[in-house]
Every structure is written in structure tokens, then in C-alpha cells.
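notes to self, project folder thing:

trying the whole complex as one job this time. last attempt i did each chain seperately and stitching them together was a nightmare. two parts in total, labels are on each line so i dont mix them up again. if this works i'll redo the older ones the same way
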Amino acid sequence: MKISIVTPLGKIFEGEIKEATFPGSEGEFGVLDGHAPLVTTLNPGVITLKKVDGGEEVIAVNWGYVEVTPDHINVLVDGAVPVAGSSESEIAEAIERAKQLIKDATDSDALVAAVEAKIESAARSI
Amino acid sequence: MATLKELKAKITSVKNTQKTTRAMKLVSTAKLKRAEEALLMSREYARKIDEVIKEISAKLASIKDSISLRAFAEINEVKKVDLIVVTADKGLCGGFNIQTIKATLAKIDELKAKNIKIRLRVIGKKAIEYFRFVGIEMYEEIEGLSSAPNYEKAAEVIEKSYEDFVNEEIDNIILIYNGYVNKLTQRVHVKELLPVEVESESKEEFLEVEPTDDYEMILESLVKKYLEYTMYYTLLDSLAGEHSARMQAMDAATNNAQEMVKQLTLEYNKVRQENVTRELIEIVTAIEAMKKK
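result (full assembly):
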């Protein structure tokens, strides 16, 4: 299924994926191919994408929408930081920016801590 | 006829002007490239948000009557509107700013003829200076935003209008700006933002909405995003337009200067030759006069 993640400043990710997990406002949820149509808002958190080639993509977002249809997903977010990079220093910088994005978006320390843990663990698997 | 010295000074001065205009053109070219990129990047978001609003509203068309959002309602009597005008902060870009101002004046006349009250909110120093000069009252003046578009500030501007719209203080928001088409053309846009256009034919499709059944919340926040984004995009578009207009104006100025240098050099040479001829005649006559003695 196709997914596109866009912010007002540009496209973050577009491509074919197998599975996606979103930090929905009513709780985290996963989407597989053929999901029922759904519209929901997102909380600050991380979107995890499982790509067709088995690779994983982790993107921190602060706030946004997801529109799911059986064959594609549209994600509109205010701010997004992909946790990725070609070198260790780049990854470390991406992690810092992702954490900052989440911190700016929420007052809840528990949420920040939870998301940070997720970002860290995702970064380890890169 | 001007003396050689005067002509020389003139040529140097025109050449200097030419240098300045050429430099300004180069600067604008570079800035335009950046503005163009930002524009392209954010166009994707525009396309998506339009798509999402259309899709959701089409799916919700069957329950449309139960949605009480003013942004989707039809407004029968328009009494007061917000007119948001965007121009550049700087001049030297040909007719770029004045085109927008003219379009604004035309719109103001049109609205006044219909007895609609206007709240003029102006972004950009050039339009502010103009309206101040002709004595048209402005509701809000914002400087510095059009030369450095910023999403948060753009959102702030439009949010105020939207709040007043929801509180029924105003009935529409009209956006006027000069946008970028390509490197040689800009076009003035006059956009009425509300009510938001929706698909009227309903798709009988199942759609789950979370938080459960709170369509209004989702739609309203989407509309807000849409407005915020439109405002931001307008600023980007206007900035790209400004740079392309300035590039053109400076290019024309450089060419004109070039032409002027050519003319002046021609004149300079003519004067020089005349002087040489005159001096020669003087010498020859003097010799001839001496020979006769």
C-alpha cells in the first residue's frame, strides 16, 4: 500500500510499505493492506513504517492527521523528523531534533519519555 | 554641447548604476531559486490537504445537514469581510506591488457598491505606505512577514480572521496577492476563502472517524490547517513572484544602462573628434597665416 507523509515545508516520505504504526489520538494503531477507511488525528509520537524490502523507517511527528483508505494512506503533519542518517553523527543529530520536536509539542513528561525511549530503540536498530 | 569631461563623468555614473542593477539581478535570481524550491516543496501539502478535505467531506455529505460548522455553511447575507492584502516590503520590482494595490482598490470599490463593510489587513510595507498615503483606513498592518515567510506567524494572522468568522463578526475572508507563474510572469490572485468548497455528491462509503464520531472536531481542525496553510503558501508565492519581478526589472534596467552607455560613448567620441578637427584647423590656419608674412 502507498503512503505519503507531507508537512507544509515539504514531503517527508512517499513510497510503498507493508505496515504502518501511528500514534493516534485514541491510542496507537497499526495499519495493514486493506484497512477500513479511517480518519483520525495524531498525538505527538513516532510513526513506524515497515517497508517492502523489510527495512524500517521511523519518523517523529508533533501533530497531524491520517487518512486511511484501503490502498493508500495520507498523512498530514505539522512537523516531522525522520530518525535516519548515513553516519552516526547524523543519526545522533536526527535523534536530538526528533526529541526536541516532541518536547515542544507536549507538556506531558510521561509522553515525552515514552516517545524518547521509542526513538532511542528505533535508532539502535538502524 | 556637453564637454568631454562632463560626458566622461556621465558614462562612469551610468556604468556604476549598471553594476548595481546587475548585482541586484543576480541576488534576485539566487533568492528566486530558493523561494521556488520552498514553493515546490509545499505544493505537495497543498495538494494533499485539498484531497483530504474533499474526500472527507464527500464521505460525510450524507450527514452534511448535521454539521453546524460555519465554514461549510452557506452564507446568505454578507455584511462584512476581511480583505487580506499581501505585497512586498521592498520596491524596485517593476509593477509587482502596484498591480496588487490596483486589484485591491478595484475589489474595495466592488464591495462598497454592494454595501459590504471591509476590514483591511495589510501585509507588506509597500501596500501599507500606499494606503497610508491615500488615506484608506487599515485594520491591521504587518511588516516584515512577506520578505521572510514563517508558518507560525502566517497561522497567527489567519487565525484571528477565522475566529472572527466563527463568531460571526465577519462573513468571508478575501486574499489578494501577486503570485508567481514563471520567471517572466506574475499573476494577481483574488481568492475568497470561505465557505470551504466541498463535494456535493455523496459517496456511500464506510468511514470510521476517531475520536469516535466527532466529525466536527476533525473537520474544523482541517479547515483551520487549510486556512493556515493557504496563508503560508500565499506568502511563499508572493515572495517568489517578488523576486522574479525584481529579476526582470533589474534585467531591464541593466539593458537600459548598457544602451545608455553606448549612446554616451558615441557622443563622447563625436565630441572628441570634433575637438581634434577644430584644433587641427586652428593649427593649419595659424601656419597659413604665418606663411603669408
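what i see at first glance: Chain B has a mean pLDDT of 87.
need to look closer tmrw
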